User: Fold these one by one.
Assistant:
Number 1:
Amino acid sequence: MAKQPDHLSSPLMRRLGRTRLFTRTAIVVERLWPLALPLLIVAALFLSLSWLGIFRIVPEWARLGLLGLLGLAALASLWPLSRFRAPRAHEVDRRIEAANALRHAPVSVQTDRLSSSGDAFADALWREHQKRMADRLGRLSGDLPRTGVPERDPWGLRAAVALLLVVAFAFSYGPLGGRVTDGFSARGGVPAIPPRIDAWVTPPTYTGRAPIFLTADANAARNVFSVPEGSAVSLRITGGSGSETLAFLGERGTETIEPEATPATVAQAGNSSRQFAATLERDGVLALMEGDEQQLGWTFQVVPDHAPVIRFAEEPGRAVNGTLDLRYEIEDDYGAVSAVAEFKQADEAAADARPLYPAPDMALTLPRRDGRSIAARTTRDLTEHPWAGSRVRLSLKAVDAAGQEGRSEEKTIILPERPFSNPLARALVEQRRLLALDANAKPRVRDLMDALMLRPEDTFDNLSHYLGLSAARTQLVMADSDDALRAVADYLWEMALAVEDGGLTDAERRLRQAQEALRQALENGASDEEIDRLMSELRQAMNDFLREFAERAARDPNMARQQMPQGQELRQSDLDRMLDQIENLAKSGSRDQAQQLLSQLQDMMNNLQMGQNQQGQQGGQQSEMRQQMDKLGQMLRRQQELMNETFRLDQMQRGQQGQQGQQGEQGQGQQGQGQMSPEEFAGAMRQLQEGQGQLQSQLEELMRGLEGMGIQPGEGFGEAGEAMGRAEQSLGQSEGERAVGEQGQALEALRRGAQDMMQQMQQAQQGEQGEGQEGGRQQSSDRDPLGRPRATTGPDFGESVNVPDEIDTQRARRILEEIRRRLGNALSPELERNYLERLLEMR
């Protein structure tokens, strides 16, 4: 090409250069596009098949076949590219001149040159021609590519390929979308259908929660699942590619869950089943992954399982027969599985102390697992334990199904012991306790025995007791081991019982043993046959006990004359009905309610055993209290009568004065019949004044009597005395209306004082019933031997024990019989048998 002519300006040359570049590009596109279109169509088909997941679901031979076809098509589409020819400069110039309709080739002239030179006139003429042609290049435009593809594809199939590519790209972001590399990944035996995924969460058995099926349609819309701590999550994949993984995303990062080695995975290579299992301990997301993509996910909110809480509902108490009575409350998320009372010696022992007996073992009754009640009660006879009578630190411990423990605060009490009235028996029990708490106290116990045997004629009423104590001393001296010392301690206890010798000792022991055996059977879930046998023994022991009690009452005239207070009558029908209820509840599965009724039965027998002695000891003081109560009742009635009489006289006097005023206006001065003169009214008021004064004196005397009994008169009595004094003064001044008001105040104050006096009397009686030991508590006197409220304190609304009616009991028993029948069927599935066994354990 010749040198750029001088007549062409730089802007013109730049514009011409841009036009040539644009035109050259258009020519390249229109020549290359038809040749490259087949290769692009093949590539678009490959991408569409990959993104649609076709290579994942087709068999291996089909995948290889498709890849082979596409490969051949790609090679074939490369052949037309060999015919591509780049545009030349004169072709570009001619295309510009054609596109702009330029005549005489003005663009080509600018780069052309003469074939020969040397003629100055010819050169000048040529330059003039180029200059004139350059003037026509003021406005140049390029040309668009004309590929001719529409003429070659009149049906527009190329658009269908493009549409398929767009749809496949969008589908690739879904759960079933594929990847570009799927066509080159060997997936032998991949099924043509999506894998089956089953996922579920099984809460711990003790929670009583039902399993949650995560992949159910009903749970598809749930975002968060709330499950108890320790729940087991399981996921099973049937079929699939085999590359799925399960991961848990929590606050500690991502944890991969490895699949379990199941027989199905090994045996069925063509249709494998993989199962994952994990335990949920904290919040997080469970994700099913395939490669780097998440197929499914579930978010879990784990509800923590807190340790049980156990606390005393009341102070540890002592029943009338010496049994330890504990009332407490147990709270747990899903109910505690066991609870015990733990004992420790409160008094600091010597450094070298060697106890012979461990602490008492006392299992506690658990509340019902219905979630409606947390209160429970346990009574246990620990009077025979060597620790009885010593100061101990008591604490309660509860354990839930997860193994977590909860403890209560410590209480320092004196462990209830059996009361002995015989001094020798009390001495033997004290020696036994000293020896049991410290084996090193052997010399001291021996010295105490020697002191008892120093003057046998003054100490022993029965020679056999002296011989027994002498034998105990000999055994103590010869004891050279802890076992031998324990034998001596046991012998001292048996001897103390023989010395005390109660008329009902044997019957009482058999009754307690029968009650304890039945209680343990209810706690351990004994069979119906065992319950029948123990109930029969309990009925026989109770009949023997009541018969001996009646015989003793017949032999003792003083005991026979003492009658039980109103509302505490003990009838055989009540005992039979209670025993029948215990048996029916135990057989119907309501073991907790049966234990509560058995506890009430123990309270009833405790009251019966100790009631007569308490009546004899407290009869004098109760008689004096009753006299004071009778006096107070008479004073209340007398004050009411005085107030009524004062009101009647005052109203009569006011009515008489009104009638006299009317008669004066009418000129009638006669006095009507039945009317009182002022002198008569004043005399009647003086009589009431004397009565009011006497009543005040009686109140002062009553207050002095209460102080002599140790009962402090309340403020009500003082206010009543002041109101009586004001009423007496008003009556002396014949002010009836004012006196009535003062008398009403006195009556109300007397009632308040009476209530306070009754409360103090009840507290005094309960204090006398106790043993005066720390932690002692007597059963409330407002209940009868069956534990029901007396008629004086209101009816029993059934809140103490919720006994099911007969229909519920029969239905529960039929259900239990059906469960046991199904368990006895050897053909029942293992899963059903496990479920039925859990139902029986939840009773």
Note: The first strand starts at residue 196 and ends at 202.
Number 2:
Amino acid sequence: MMRNSLVLAAVVCLVGSASGRERPSTDHVLGPFARMVSPSAANIEWETDAALPSIVQWRAAESDLWRRSEDPTPMRRHAVTIDDLDRAAVYEYRLVHSETQGTRNVTPAYRLDTAFDYVLPSPAPTTDPFPPDALSDAYDSVARRMVDALGTRKGYCLIVGVGDGRLAYHLARRSDLTIVAIDEDPQRVRAARETLDQAGIYGSRVTVRQASLPEAAFGPYFANLITSDTMLTTGQWPAEVSALYPYLRPAGGLLYVGQFDEAAGEPPSLDAARQWLSSAAPGGEARTVVEDGLFLVHRRPELEGAGRWTHQYGRADNTACSRDEVVEADLTVQWWGRPGSRPMPDRGPRNPAPVSANGYLFSQGDRVLFGMDAYNGTVLWSLQVPQLRRANMPRDCSNMVAADDTLYLALGGYCVGLDAATGRRKHRLSLPHPASPATHDWGYLASAEDTLVGSCVKKGTHYLGDDGEWYEDFGEPNVARVTSDRLFAVDRDQSSLRWTYDGGTIINSTITMADGTIWFVESTNSAAADAPTGRLFDEVQRDQQLVAVDRRSGSVLWKKPFDFSKCEYSIYLCHGDDNLIATGADRNKVFHTYALDAKNGELLWEHQARAQKTHHSGHLSHPVLIGKKLFINRMVLDTATGNVLQTDLLERRGCGTMAGSNRVIFYRHHYHGSWDLQSDERREYRAVRSSCWLGTIPAGGLLLVPESSAGCSCDDAIQTSMALVPRSKVGQPAPAAEQRP
């Protein structure tokens, strides 16, 4: 949440290479968060527990000369802008917390890379090419209402019927939208191009094509806003609503059409459009607005049957299945582009998966975070956050969760909620007493309804993977589990504490939540509780038990002693069909899988099998659970009986793990691959590959693949972010499936 005042006007001075003594600051800081606000300026925000002046020192990476921006007013929420920065250059900056008697308390130096401003420049019109007339105010007013109703300034707008280009001009003034207009009349197209070029925005903000629908051949779902200029002045629909609708972004795309009062012609008939919309998009809003004219406003809901990927393994149930019914195995490119490989960490340390909800896609780089439009690839915002880093997901849990219009991040001893559309901070949540940022970090993170579930991890426990660690071999530096000493739940908006659980030492990779219950494996060994770190192996391999607590109250439902110590390389827990599935491989690369009754922890069946793939992390594979089928170790097991249903599963050459929808499993062989569970057809999408853990997620009717292959030397790896859409949505003929072993 931003302070009420504007961004601080900084006082800038040169401070030299050394000025008095310096010592590390002991003040607890949330942040900093660095955001490029122009090609030459960055805004630095942070929070402190005590009211302090806002002081930032910065310098070019190769310079010894520090510069300084400050506001002397003591405050807890800080925002300082540093400017005069070079494009695509690396800087470092630090926060100064106090200066007394020649001693300066400073934070470590943080990296700032100005190349990570991936939001495209959006020049405003330089001149108004339209002389004032009776419609001038109406155009400006309707453009303002459209942008306000849309709820974001970024993305794509489709104008069907360009008119003289005036609506495009006013939308460009009011937003940062990329505007694509089409019209069948070549004279109108030529005139609109010339007028918008005179305004200084043609080619950079606005493009006009001579085309009609559907001949324009746009891809599906790309437009955040669809409207018409010609309809404003004539009342005539530019195309059937059914022809416009395929291009409208699901989960919030806005259809905003109508006619001005001053326009000639009969008012448009909106009843038929409303009727069609109610049948095509059940639950979607379709309302009439009477202001300067008569307008129909419709916000497209999420695709029926589309899934979300909100947690590390799909949902908090850890099934690695999004339950998406829309995405198919036969895919084609929806969009591709930024971010590329430069801001990404090495793919080897098995980094957190991207997450997606409500049409947004969130991807972590190397201490850089991107918020994107899942349907058209627009980079809505990017933040450079030094505290944002975790690795070795097979032995830990992710630090981010997507929930409706908010992204939650675990950062040091805090959790912050960011607005999905803008990246602005909305919420700050703290660890429950007596844990504090001095002693603990926020570990596990999950969301359900209006609740966040978290855990307390001893400071410095999380893996960072900054040296490209592989975490593949057996040995405590690789396989030690990240553990928590407390589980708790808070109200995710008001941050009030609901409950805490203090039992044994909890293994983070096992925390699983579904149907109002949280399950996990913990150790009651006193050596684990007394250890100075939460990264443990031998200590938590003894005295294990499976625990179930009520998510709403935190009360213990049951505890069941159980020995999972054969799961040495890793241990996973997932929930489906009233069963809990625990699995992991031992040091001889034999998989051990246990099914337990979720209601009482009783063992239902167990299964052992040697790893069918012993290279590139085959022995680390996380299971995929779809309905009553468990996909693990190139086998399919019946979750009710443990019987082996299939043994000819796809071969995975790469080191990643699988992700599933209800109809398809996505994986990496050489490149991105898909396996249709009904037809058994297997395809690869050449020249692109994902991470060494989980980088491809089926969500929203798409396969979302933000770049995560940085550092790989594999052949033909095009390092780009992309989304793939079912070919059937584009109307392209399907090529023959490429059979793979």
Note: The domain at 11-116 is CATH 2.60.40.10 (Immunoglobulin-like).
Number 3:
Amino acid sequence: MPASFESLQKILKLEAEYGYENRAVVGGLEKFLPIWANEARKAHLDEKMVAVVGEKLQDYPRLNPEGRAAAIQGLIEILRSAPASTSQLQPTHSEPSATPRQETPRPPRPAPSSGVVRPAAATSTAPTLGLNAPLTVISGIGPANAQILRGIGLNTLEDLLYYFPRRYDDYSQLKPINRLQYGDELSVMGTVYSITTRPVRGGQSQITEAVFTDGTGFLRVSWFNQPWLSSRLPEGTQVVLSGKVDMYLGRLVMNSPDWELVEQDHLHTNRIVPVYPLSGRLTQKNLRRMVFQVVSFWASRVPDFMPSSVRHGAGLIDLGQALSQIHFPDSQDQLKEARFRLAFDEIFLMQLGVLRQKQAWQAGTAQVFSAPREWLDNQIMRLPYALTGAQQRVLDEIQQDLASGRPMNRLLQGDVGSGKTVVAALAAAIIAREDAQAAIMAPTSILAEQHYRNLTLTLAEGENAPLRPEQIRLLVGDTSDADKAEIRAGLESGEVALIIGTHALIEDPITFKRLQLVVIDEQHRFGVAQRSALRSKGDNPHLLVMTATPIPRSLALTVYGDLDISVMDEMPAGRIPIKTHVLSPREVERAYQLLRTEINNGHQAFIIYPLVEKGDRDEGKAAVEEHERLQREIFPDLKLGLLHGRMKPEEKDEVMSRFHAGEFQILVSTSVVEVGVDVPNATVMLVEGANRFGLAQLHQFRGRVGRGPDQSYCLLIPESEDAVENQRLSAMAETNDGFVLAERDLEQRGPGEFLGTRQAGYSELKLANITDVHLIEKARNQAQALFSIDPDLSRQEHEPLLKTLEKFWGNGRGDIS
């Protein structure tokens, strides 16, 4: 029998099992018919046979049960007698098969393309087109609706199955009318006592008013511009209403409630009702009906990729049950279980991914570097200050990595001013001691130049310096062509032992003789491709990534699970805590007075604005206009510099150099000063429009002052008197601990504040909360246990998980770092 006929025969048999209720295919047999006919014609099947099938099925929905049974059984007999030779004309690619769909390989990507966890393929034997079928197979979805659905990313049945509600309205509790109270949100079951429609607003609108009764009392209900309800809900109709109980002229009323007839399946009333994100002319009721059709047929048929050992160990419900309950929960408890299962899936697959990354990294070999204790002690003694306990601990961890024979893959996180650069400098010295090379990449030319000055002072000046000044070079975008050529030659020959630069390090055709250490500063500002390009210039080099943005523990467990993490949680001795104050916009003159007082005492100040220039639709303050106003009206006797991201690199460098040299008393800037700028004489940081910045970013701004021996201040002024924003900003005044602020920022603004290109997918998680440490630890423990017994997921029972994992991670293991 031809394969297309076999597929149709299975559907017909399933329809018979369902009692001829037209449920064998989502959308009904009449929806399936044109798709099947098209496939049959592609397979060059007999046109007469295709016509016979069409004739039998096109009127199927309008037949009575006896007529449907006769049509189905008649077709089954016709198909049995189909000539065997017809199968020779059936192309192998044309059958709408229910066998697992093979994923087309895609290039490796560093993060999940979406937070939605879906099985790699539908392996159900259900005779349908599968979850890849277009939404037009659903009854009620034509080309116009399909176009609207495409606008919110819904193209297939699978898309709709995994389109989760954004919230729920709980109408599961029924109350008699005589017990209703103002403010209740619930369902009421009753009978239409009376209903009328009348014009309002001079005939421009209409209002339909009805009175409902349940025997205990009467409830007045109204709908605007729905006059058809008068004929749809005549007197005596039994209806379930769901909505909020309001009050009008002392009487309880419901305005525009959802309603359903009592005999209908209740999707919109008398239950916990899902509320979905909408777009265009799509309505909640229509979308719920579409989802219900897919969920009722497919949820129980989706294969569960999760191994039974993990399901039992973590206390998870089945995937099919979770998909059903996440859309149409029977109770709050079942909704909670469904959310936990699907959120667990997301984090679990994340954990397996980073564990594979870590395994791949550790499987490589690397050059061993082991510095003698006496030599390293001498280098530490050369420093103008003693190392903190945290710096010494991190240095010991890095030494162990460099001597292990495996590539170092370490994240060094430390608060602003904790001394990360000194540790990186000592690591570079250990590498250079054995004639190998190190590269340090910074996100801005300002920061790269500052690193160059500091590292030259640390490593190439004074007695017993490990490097000579000419062995340390700076490469940024505006480095002259002659210097670039000289630097390239020095790196190729090995004469340059330490190169510091921006992305120019990877954009220029640079070749290293022996690159063995790569240091990435403010790593979240670089994309995967940039980090990978620099690392590829060496042979499995050691990698140290640094950030001054404290990483919350939950993120460290997930996003950075492939990295060894060092924490610099101790500040150098003598640092005076910065005093932080949140001021209202009306108190800006107080801020200006503090600036003038500090400047009169010989200090300098920053003033930060969220915008470069003011746009037509933006009410926020901008640096360019405010710089002119401040210079003209507020500080006419002082010199004010201006710095923003649209300036050329050489212009920015010149402004910062002049500010560092004391030529400007005040620097007006945008967020370009967030990272790395070190001006010890600056004691005031004033941030206007502070509500536009995250806490982590404000903490970075604050770190630009307090670098010297004098008391420093950070003043935050939001754009309005809004109490909530001021309460959020008050966290800055409560603590100088960057880790505390990072946790709060993660809760308030999500993970995007901390993540770069590699981790973009993590901010798209549909159900998992990246701040839920309990969930993360449970998923991590289960992933580690599974990984310990089958790291390659090669066992037969783990095959569905492997396919889903590869789909989740884009068929690639991602990038390491």
Note: The two ends are 55 Å apart (CA to CA).
Number 4:
Amino acid sequence: MASGASRFKFISPGVYINEIDRSQIPAEPTAMGPVIIGRTEKGPGMVPTKVSSFEEFTRVFGAPVPGAGGGDNWREGDFDGPTYGAYAAQAWLKSGEAPVTMVRLLGTQHRDNDGTSAAMAGWKPTGEPSAHMINNGGAYGLFLADYASDVTGTLAAVFYTNQGTSIRLSGTFFGGVDGHGSGAGTAKVFTNTGAQSEFVAEIFTGGSATGNGDLAEKVCFNFNPDSEKFIRKVFNTNPSQTNSTVVSTSNNPSYYTYWLGETFEGFVRDGFVGTARVTGSAASSAQSSVAALLGLVSGTFEYYDNNRSFQNAETSYFRSQDTGDAASFDMSRAANLFKLVALEYGDWANRNIKVSIENLRAADYPDVTPYGSFSVVLRHVKDRDEDVRVLERFDNLNLNPNSVNYIARRIGDSYFQWSDTDRRLRHYGNYPNNSSYVRVVVDDAVTDGAINPELIPFGYYGPPRWNSWQILSGAAETTRMGDPGLSADSIVKGGDDLAFSGSQTATIFLQGITSGRSFAFEFPSMRVRVSASDGGMQDPTDAYFGIQTTRNKDSGRFDSSYIDLTRPLSADANTFTTGARTESSFIFTMDDIVSGTTGYCYNSGSRAGGSSYSAQTGKTYKDLLDAGYDRFTAPMYGGFDGLNITEKEPFRNTGLSDKTQETSYAYNSIKRAIDTVSDPEFVESNIMTVPGITNSVLTKHLVDTCEKRGDSLAVIDIENDFVPFTENTADITARLPSVSSAITSLKSRSINSSYGCCFFPFVQVRDTRTGRLIDVPPSVPALGTFGSSQARTEVWFAPAGFVRGGLSNGAAGIPVTNVKLRLTSKDRDKLYAVNINPIASFPNEGIVIFGQKTLQVQRSALDRINVRRLLIFLKKEVSRIANGILFEPNVQATWDRFTSAVNPFLADVKARFGLTDFRVVLDNTTTTDDLIDRNILYAKIYLKPARAIEFIALDFIITRTGASFDD
């Protein structure tokens, strides 16, 4: 055996000293708190994520959202309904000390879903654009172009309509169609009616395939964000206002049968590199631009089909610099290096993150260390190059798999993937994620060390977009989109399936083009920086080439239409890879930067053309970096929440009734979230809740999961409580709680488990950020009360009553201002008799949780919450002690170690009023010789839990004046 001296290095004479630290304090067990499943503003989705404070929660998951805020939901996020899960987290974290494990709900459909609209995650309007564009629903693109001859126009906006609704432009025809110069219609070209590309649209509802229906709206609009007629200000931009289940259709001006989706005012105004696509957008002439509405569908490709599970946003693969002959340069020969993928954030990452690569450096000593280095900086999408807002940064990265600064090692490449077969998350990746927002996907050639070590990230392909298309008037009918010289198939449908304008027939694609005129239309793209001096940069080398997210090159204001450029393509197309109907929206590489009299500028194709800086004789990419131009920016795009945006609450209970995993994506998402936390070795927890979900099957599944784990208490909400406005359109009086119905429905379920509990009714709370009063399910204040009771006393003290259950006194962690139903004494008795814990309101004491029963039917100590939580606590802590003797010899000395640790622990619990008595038995009467031979240690622990006082009986006895109290 080696001696302790072997640790020393003896070469020359001297005194050698080594320091050995044996004073370390053993790590304390990680504190446990609840698992909360629900919606939040942002954050990792469908993956359990632990946070330790409310400040950390808001940083990761966002602040609680009160809902019903109105505004542009399409762009700003779909939060018509309150985020109950976030309020539950606030209640716990503000009242207690233990952490929360949050599972943010996103939409995911089951592998074996039945294909119905309810079973599919995401959303899709009813209907499909028809050959004659009459009231058939779907998506319609507003294409805009200059009035001038032979121009290239663009898709400017997209309208989504339900079946029975049509949107038509009206005004003056560009070519005098149908023998007159004005009218209304779809698949017809109109001239603008005023300055700034001003047009008029008519919305008809209640139509059929042969009839227009009724004119519901006539709207004048333009594409100037500062105008009162700006398109997003005058049309409905809230998809949930089209849902008749949750929005009343009778005499309700807020109910619509369409919504305005994407608008591309930035591209209309500035184009890809700062050249306006429609100059008439800022003109004052009467005839400066033309427009047409066309269906966005072709074959199996439907622009409006967003039925898909949630997906993560990504960057494109970052590609290397060109090290070959400049004249033959093609971006496709640049090596794929890596890409960044968001950590389950859905579309939040699209709307909030962009990625900059900066501090690009070639290897300083290529003979020694041939790899170059760079930084990855996650920036807020609304910042500008003159005022960078950093979310995270990772410096001095490289592509050397053996380096401590290897990009995958520094940022992380881990992720989870759900298995419908095993009903659990599987973990992949080699390096833990050190980023709060993204992980790295490194190309196999980089991982294998098979690339030229000189390569560094230098460019990328822009997000895929639908193919451009052209139209030519007056040509033979065989000349149409797809023929030689014209664009490949896109996703545009007019009077027939192909883009063509010839004779005026019933199946004509696009009417109203003057004979001999041609138009080309492209789909929008992100704007890129043209010059290093754009925006008045004091030091041009501080400029980031690549995308810019401001309104124009000199603006400091965010271009909101950028958000619409980051959305995924339809479900039947690949958002991240080009296909038969899609093309790269642009190609960016630092190799296309030129140096001229006006400074350093970006000019696409300049390297192959021989004019870029790195293409000059004697120059390479290293010279560009040495000149200080060492940074560029790329978008994150394609993230999707997988939720039905036409719902105020995507997980409303009225949509879960009688559903299964195969017939409802919402049901499947909730069940999957519960199954994700079913393994106690994967997620530690002592409480679980899904606030607001009252579906009997799902809440029973939560209780069963907690019972199977044996270490958690399910706090469920029950049916026939208050029905929020997100559930239906019933009058408020029909949505109030019903004591008798709640009792009847719970009794019919025959739940018998000490691992579940419920409360009644809903309460009203004040949102601490906005001051708004909102209604929340009773599981929210109950959870807060559990936390505050545990923090102030012990986990085994009853979280109820005026001392620890006083909601008006702050026990819930959030301000509780009212109850949705004032319970009488008889109501409370009836509820408590069937194990429903009342939330009562008293004139002087305020609002109080007035019960602490579990859902166990049999009378025993475990029919009380405080005892069940005591047993959960004791089992977990004794299990931790037992873990310390696993694989130790099964002898008396080991038994003594166990009992000498358990006895003081239980004595301490007794001293703190958790137990009235206990006894630990571990000897040869429990662990017999037979068990020893089978490698089993068996102990018995007898407990007498302390009971809470729930009933107080007082006799007031009136005596005679002369009587003695001792009698």
Note: The first helix runs from residue 54 to 61.
